[in-house]
Amino acid sequence: MTNINLLDEALYNSIYRSPRVGNFNEIWNNIKNDPQVLREAVQITEDKYNKRNTVKGLTICDSILINYKSIDEIAYMNLIDAIYTNKDIARIVVDGASTGGFSFLFMSLWNHNLKLTNEQKDFAIDEAMNKIGTTRYQQTELLSNTQAHGVGIYDIRYQILKNPNWSFEEKKKLVMDFWNDAKVYDETLDQWEWGIINNCVNFKNYHTILEKDTLYEFTYERLLNIYKDKAITEQIWNEIQFCKQMHKLRPQQWELEIISKKKVLNYI
């Protein structure tokens, strides 16, 4: 009989322990090629304090969510079901602070091919609304595990807004709910744009390839000609298109001022 705890500990030591112990590829390949191990690892159980729900193989589940493209489908979908029906499971963070690390829910949103139900979408939104700065945020929740699901500008709100499960109209409302303060939203969008500019792939001879003022003038073909790499081009292009859509969903204050002045001029 397979000991999930021993396998999970070995996997954890090969990824997160410092210094690392064991060969990750060897350990993970042995685990991922055994569907029965994966399916047992995603089963819900009680933590050692009998206070919260958890899964039998924390690190195994963590790796399942990272390597979703090449994993047993039954095990993966069982884990997804557990995440979107159990807040304890959704908020699990294997490596990092429980108040802001990469939670299971956060990681599940990386898979844009995963079709979420309306109930699952509502679950994700409900968790995202606990983040600092939303229209529902309460200061008393700052240090609780409701603040899981990432930190900074790339937290769960960013993941939801990038995810195709939500329509343009749904995102139009969400982007207003996720940032109650217009100034904070404007700064966040600016940082997303600078994140593209400052990506390491854009620096050659200490100069950046892209400029913020002309960011939206680049075509896909031009980017491909610059990077000579389809994967990098896709990454940068998708980030540009995301920021471009955010401007449409919720224009920044300077854009609203221009729109307002145009309306006045048209009226005159």
Q: Your description of this structure?
A:
By secondary structure, this protein is mainly α. Helix content is 54%, strand content 4%. Strands 1-2 form a two-stranded antiparallel sheet. A two-stranded antiparallel sheet has the order 3-4. The termini are far apart.
Give the secondary structure arrangement, pairings included.
Blueprint: H1 4-15, H2 24-32, H3 35-41, E1 44-46, E2 53-55, H4 58-66, H5 73-83, H6 87-90, H7 104-108, H8 118-128, H9 156-162, H10 168-178, H11 182-197, E3 203-204, E4 207-208, H12 220-227, H13 230-249, H14 253-267
Antiparallel strand pairs: 1-2, 3-4
Quick structural overview:
With 268 residues, the chain is mainly alpha-helical. Helix content is 54%, strand content 4%.
Instruction: Please give the order of strands in the largest beta sheet.
Output: 1-2
Structural class: mainly alpha
In total, how many beta strands? 4
Q: Which sequence of SSEs, written as H and E, runs from N to C? A: HHHEEHHHHHHHHEEHHH
Task: Provide the low-confidence segments as ranges.
Answer: none
What would you call the quaternary organization?
single chain
Tally of contiguous helical segments: 14
